[in-house]
């Protein structure tokens, strides 16, 4: 079974620039999550999709972050404009939906550095 | 707000010894706990889970203990191997899907 694919693996941008991350979940997984993991900390949920609908975006900084999941498959997460504190690894995870957390599969993440 | 946290940020263990990683949680409503392993450059990987109606669960070389009285969770790794070197996170959820992660403990295995 192919895993969760994310791209790019690394990205360096200047503050106030824009950036986008892409995630392709495991085929058939209805639920998709974006997490932000700051160095030395645990991942923090940004947004959860069920198919192409948003289930939870309570911790998404909506003034600068946006995410979409068109057609209920791939997803993109965008930051505009970026701040220094956005430097982190952005992890995408997927699950079949209705599963407990043991059913999550994480991608390897995109490491963002804002300078 | 309520959170999940770890006591030790770094743990060094001799190869072959047993490792114990501890975690404290503060949300008394938590009813499901998970341990994840995260290797460098990779996403978290599920290791073992436990429900709040249990106090112990065993897997292959790993055991999770839950003490609800003091809101404490631990992960025991038997006969620690170099491949066990990673950051370990405890996490909790009060229900399906949304997971709250702790800070993490780095396990270093000394050959």
Q: What percent of residues of chain B are in strands?
A: over 45%
Order of helix and strand elements from N to C terminus of chain A: EEEEEEEEEEE
Biggest chain contact: A-B, 24 and 22 residues
Order of H and E elements of chain B: EEEEEEEEEEE
Helix content estimate of chain A: under 10%
Dominant shape of chain B: globular
Helical segment count of chain B: 0
Total beta-strand segments of chain A: 11
Mean pLDDT of chain B: 88
How large is the share of residues in beta strands of chain A?
A: over 45%
| Cα separation of the termini of chain A | 37 Å
Radius of gyration of chain A: 13 Å
Low-confidence runs of chain A: none
From the alpha-carbon coordinates, what is the Rg of chain B to the nearest angstrom?
Answer: 13 Å
Based on secondary structure, the structural category of chain A is mainly beta
Blueprint of the fold:
The complex is a heterodimer of chains A (115) and B (111).
Chain A: E1 5-7, E2 10-13, E3 19-24, E4 31-37, E5 44-50, E6 53-56, E7 65-68, E8 75-79, E9 88-95, E10 105-106, E11 110-114
Parallel strand pairs in A: 2-11
Antiparallel strand pairs in A: 1-3, 3-8, 4-5, 4-9, 5-6, 7-8, 9-10, 9-11
Chain B: E1 4-6, E2 10-14, E3 19-25, E4 32-38, E5 45-51, E6 56-58, E7 62-67, E8 72-77, E9 86-93, E10 100-101, E11 105-110
Parallel strand pairs in B: 2-11
Antiparallel strand pairs in B: 1-3, 3-8, 4-5, 4-9, 6-7, 7-8, 9-10, 9-11
